[in-house]
Specification:
It is globular, with a radius of gyration of 19 Å. It has a nine-stranded antiparallel β-sheet, with no helix packed on it. It has a five-stranded antiparallel β-sheet with strand order 1-2-3-4-5. It contains two helices and 29 strands. About 5% of the residues lie in helices and about 45% in strands. With about 325 residues, it is mostly beta strands. Strand 13 and strand 14 form a beta hairpin. Bound molecules: alpha-D-galactopyranose (GLA). Alpha-D-galactopyranose binds next to strand 24 and strand 27.
C-alpha cells in the first residue's frame, strides 16, 4: 500500500512524501529519490527505524553524506574526473579534490524527481541533460521503489541518446540497532566476497586483493568493530571501511543486530559493493546528530573508477540501450 502526505516546501513547491507499506514501512522523498526511513519489526514485533535520515528538504538536498539518496550519474570516485569513451576524452566536475565524486557538484541527490504511483511501486523519474557535470548524452532515469512483505526493492532504469557512463547506487545508512543508537560497531556483517579493491590515498581503487587473513575478511559474520581499528594501511587511509568488495554471488551481504534482532540480507545483480562505515559522519547532519560510525552503507555498484580500468566491467550505457539493475534489501529477525 502507498500513502502520501505533505512533508515540506522546497524551492517554492510543496513536496509530498510517500509511504510504501507491507510488513515494513519505507518513507520516500522525491528530492534525491531519498529514503527517509525504513521501519521494520524487531524481535518483539515493535517497529524500529533502522535508517539514518534528514528531516527537511533543504537538508536532504545539501548534506554531503548523501544520506538515503540515489547517487548518480556515477557513484563513487572517478580519478581526476577524466575518462575516454569512443576515443573522445571527457572532463567531469572535480568536486572531491582532483576527483569526481557521486555525480559532481549537483548530483542526483539534489534533484527533484517526478513521482508516480504505479500499483505497489513508486516510480521516480529524472531527466539529466547532455553535458550535465561533464557527462555526455541526455539521460532519462527511472527509479522504482517497491515493498513486498519484508523486502524493499530498488530498480534502476535508464536510457541515453549518446553513449555515456551510468553507475547509480543508493546511499542508505543503516544501524540495525535503531537509527539513533549511535554506533554500528556491534552490528554483525557478512559479505560474499573473496577479494576487495585496495585504494590509494585519495580512495581511488588500485588493485584487487584477497580478503583472507586481513581485516577485510567478512566471509564469516563478524562485528564491524572487531578489526576496524587494526593497524592496517587500507583502514588507515579511509579511517575505517570505505572499500569496494568484489561480489561472488547475488546474495551480496547480510547484517544483523544482536540488540534488536533485526537482520538484513542484500541481494543485487551488481558486481561491486561499497562497504562504508560512516567514517566521515561528524556529529551534526542538518537537525540530526549522527556521529562517526553511527551508520553503515552497502552501496551496490560497478567497481569505482572502472572506466579507467579496462579489466573491470564497464559502466557504459550505449545510446538507445536500456539499463536495468536491481538491489533488494530483505529484513527478518533473529
Ligand atoms: C561513499 C564514499 C565515501 C564518502 C561517502 C559520503 O560511501 O565512498 O568515501 O564519500 O560516500 O560521505
Amino acid at each position: 500500500m502507498i500513502t502520501q502526505q505533505y512533508f515540506d516546501t522546497y524551492e517554492g513547491k510543496e513536496i509530498n512524501v510517500y509511504q510504501l507499506s507491507d510488513k515494513i514501512d519505507v518513507l520516500i522523498c522525491p528530492i534525491g529519490a531519498t529514503v527517509l526511513s525504513i521501519r521494520v519489526p524487531d524481535r518483539f514485533g515493535k517497529k524500529t527505524d533502522v535508517l539514518l535520515s534528514m528531516t527537511e528538504c533543504a537538508e536532504i538536498a545539501k548534506n554531503d553524506a548523501y544520506m538515503g539518496s540515489v547517487v548518480g550519474r556515477c557513484a563513487n570516485r572517478i580519478s581526476n574526473g577524466k575518462f575516454n569513451l569512443n576515443g573522445v576524452s571527457y572532463q567531469l566536475t572535480q568536486n572531491k579534490g582532483q576527483n569526481h565524486l557521486h555525480g559532481g557538484n549537483v548530483g542526483f541527490n539534489q534533484k527533484v524527481f517526478k513521482p508516480t504511483i504505479d500499483g505497489d511501486s513508486l516510480l521516480l523519474e529524472l531527466d539529466s541533460p547532455d553535458g550535465e557535470e561533464g557527462y555526455p548524452g541526455n539521460l532519462k532515469i527511472v527509479v522504482r521503489y517497491s515493498v513486498k512483505g519484508s523486502s524493499f526493492a530498488i530498480d534502476y532504469y535508464a536510457a541515453s541518446d549518446k553513449d555515456t557512463l551510468f553507475n547509480p547506487t543508493s546511499h542508505l545508512y543503516f544501524n540495525l540497532n535503531g537509527e539513533s543508537d549511535g554506533s554500528i560497531l556491534d552490528n554483525v556483517v557478512q559479505i560474499t566476497a573473496d577479494s576487495y579493491l585496495q585504494v590509494d590515498e585519495n580512495l581511488i581503487p588500485t588493485e584487487k586483493a584477497a580478503v583472507a587473513n586481513t581485516p577485510f575478511d567478512f566471509s564469516k559474520p563478524k562485528p564491524i568493530g572487531q578489526d576496524i581499528d587494526c593497524q592496517d594501511v587500507q583502514l588507515n587511509i579511509a579511517g575505517g571501511y570505505d572499500h569496494n568488495f568484489c561480489l561472488e554471488d547475488d546474495h551480496a551481504a547480510c547484517a544483523y543486530s544482536t540488540k534488536s534482532g533485526v537482520c538484513l540480507d542484500v541481494f543485487t545483480d551488481c558486481c561491486g559493493l561499497q562497504f562504508y562505515t560512516g567514517n566521515f559522519l561528524n556529529g551534526q547532519q542538518g537537525k540530526s546528530v549522527y556521529d562517526r560510525r553511527s551508520g553503515f552503507c552497502m552501496e551496490t555498484q560497478f567497481f569505482p573508477n572502472a572506466i579507467n580500468n579496462s579489466e573491470w566491467k564497464q559502466p557504459v550505457l550505449k545510446a538507445g540501450e536500456k539499463f536495468h539493475s536491481c538491489t533488494q534489501y530483505v529484513f527478518s529477525t533473529l
